[in-house]
Design a protein that fits this description.
The protein contains 22 helices and 2 strands. It is mainly alpha-helical. It has a domain at about 25-145 and about 180-380. It has a two-stranded antiparallel ribbon with strand order 1-2. Helix 7 (about 150-175) runs antiparallel to helix 17. It is globular and about 60 Å long.
């Protein structure tokens, strides 16, 4: 990073401290241990489905046994926990030190299945190892991508994250296969509706610490009701595995290196890098903390390290999740330490399997209802950020319109790109990646005509956004008001 960027970053940090726009103290706040643990558990509940869905889908696609799929879930939970702890706590040059969680990326499903079926799991392991190491070494260069995410792009990305994730919650409620027996069963809809009602009542009536736990309390009570209605779910899932267990390295195979397969994984990692950078900027907007290129570099190092470690066990690609960003705004708690506690809980869930079995017994309509509400908050956060942008400018208007439209194609028409080459499927079927790519490209195209469309003031005389103005134009105004959201 050049000297001009470093000077600008220092200057913006001083201005943020002087004006109070950088609310780092709230992020670094240390809460009592009990409160931290309970809030951490709430973060786990919100992200849990997103963490376990990737190994389950990959396991079934590759025809693995139930025991092997259970091992994949255990691997994913432990590595996600390690990544989450590093991301939120920060160790040396690893971790953005913000309340963000880490998990296996859904974009990685396609290359793992495609390479695993054609070349074997050993090739998956070798490809992920090489791609992860390269990602780790090149993270400082990827960190400069922060310059291309002004408010108009960041707001569009956050809006898309919410819009693309909300249907996931609905599918958890009704089911994912409309042709399956029991799809949209009234009992499922009623349990989800009861969960939503509890959330609304608790959120409206409870104050202080209990108010911050409104989602968790609603999930616990709704889960208890679900178990009373159908106790077989809890009984059948508990006690089927050893008390403690974890998969040994290379149990699924040894490293096999195949250059074309490595390239496929590198392409997916480039897409994930852009999306993860957007997540880092998104949490900065919600917490009111200025995110710098150095912060993005530390964020990417954690994703790369978790990906590299996974190659010794199976071969997931890890990324920083956005599922819990909405929870930060919904609860009003921006401290990163509950997320650290959540990471420790994830590790425990992966090692102490009965605990994970109980978690897996939570009725999907309950988790789906909580997830849909939390993802809806992301939509609101994106709209609030876009409210800062001058949408009377044609460039800004087109960035938002095209970014949202392209991003929603995989959601609205899942088979729209079915005739495209398999090598492009992972990119085209990620709504957030596509929308982010379109928004960034349009932002660069319109940077010549309006500074507000890019968030940069060019001092170089060319079309390239100036790094000297990147942080200045992008210093975030907190979406959070600093008040209890129930007052």
């Amino acid at each position: 990073m050049n000297e001009a960027v470093a000077r600008t970053t220092r200057a913006n940090s001083e201005r943020a401290s002087a004006t109070g726009t950088d609310d780092r103290a709230a992020v670094d706040e240390r809460l009592p241990l009990g409160k931290t643990s309970i809030l951490g558990f709430q973060h786990v509940l919100v992200m849990y489905a997103g963490v376990v869905v990737v190994p389950i889908l990959i396991g079934h696609a590759l025809g693995l046994t139930d025991r092997q799929i259970a091992a994949l879930v255990s691997i994913d939970l432990v590595l996600a926990g390690i990544g989450t702890v590093l991301q939120a706590l920060g160790v040396w040059k690893f971790g953005i030190r913000m309340p963000l969680v880490v998990g296996a990326a859904s974009q990685g499903i396609v290359p793992v299945v495609m390479v695993g079926e054609s070349r074997g799991i050993g090739t998956v392991l070798g490809s992920v190892l090489v791609a992860g190491v390269l990602w780790l070494l090149l993270a400082p260069f990827f960190g400069t991508l922060v310059r291309f995410f002004p408010h108009v792009v960041t707001g569009t990305v956050i809006l898309l994250i919410g819009l693309t994730l909300v249907p996931v919650g609905f599918r958890m409620i009704a089911g994912s296969d409309p042709t399956a027996e029991g799809y949209g069963d009234l009992d499922k809809l009623a349990l989800a509706g009861f969960t939503l009602l509890l959330m609304a009542v608790f959120y409206r009536t409870l104050k202080g610490f209990l108010g911050q736990l409104s989602i968790l309390l609603a999930i616990v009570l709704a889960t208890a009701v679900g178990w009373v209605i159908d106790p077989s779910t809890l009984v059948s899932n508990v006690g089927q595995a050893p008390l403690v267990g974890f998969t040994a390295p290379f149990e699924f195979g040894s490293f096999v290196f195949h250059v074309p397969s490595i390239i496929i994984f590198l392409i997916i990692i480039l897409v994930i890098t852009v999306e993860a950078s957007g997540q880092g900027l998104a949490v900065g907007e919600v917490t009111g903390v200025k995110v710098t290129p150095q912060d993005i570099t530390r964020l990417l190092r954690v994703d790369a390290l978790a990906t590299t470690l996974s190659s010794f066990f199976f071969g997931f690609i890890y990324t920083t999740f956005g599922q819990n960003i909405g929870l930060l705004k919904l609860t009003g708690v921006r401290s990163r330490f509950p997320v650290v506690a959540g990471g420790i809980i994830l590790i425990m869930l992966g090692i102490f399997q009965p605990v994970g079995e109980v978690m897996a017994s939570i009725p999907s309509p309950v988790v789906g209802a909580a997830a849909a509400v939390t993802f809806g908050v992301l939509i609101l956060a994106g709209m609030q950020i876009l409210a800062k942008v001058d949408l009377d400018k044609p460039g800004n208007t087109l960035i938002v319109m095209f970014g949202v439209v392209f991003g929603l194609v995989p959601v609205a028409a899942p088979h729209f790109y079915s005739q495209m080459p398999d090598s492009m499927n992972a990119i085209l079927h990620s709504g957030v990646a596509m929308g982010t790519f379109v928004a960034v490209v349009l932002n660069l195209l319109f940077s010549r005509h309006t500074k507000e469309a890019t968030g940069f003031e060019s001092s170089t005389g060319d079309d390239t956004p100036s790094a000297d103005s990147a942080d200045t134009a992008r210093t975030p105004t907190s979406v959070h008001t600093g008040q209890d959201p129930r007052t």
